[in-house]
Amino acid sequence: MPSVPQPPNIAPLFLYYYYVVYKPFGVLSQFTTSVAGKIGLGSLFDFPKDVYPVGRLDEDSEGLLFLTNDPRQNAYWLGQGVEKCYWVQVEGRPTLHDLGPLTRGISISIKGQKHQCLPVGVELFHEAPLLPSRNPPVRFRLSVPDTWLKLTLREGKNRQVRRMTAALGFPTLRLVRWSFGPFTLAGMEPGEVRALSPDLLSSSNFMI
Question: Which of 6, 82, 158, 188 is the most exposed place for a label (fewest CB within 10 A)?
Answer without folding.
Answer: 6
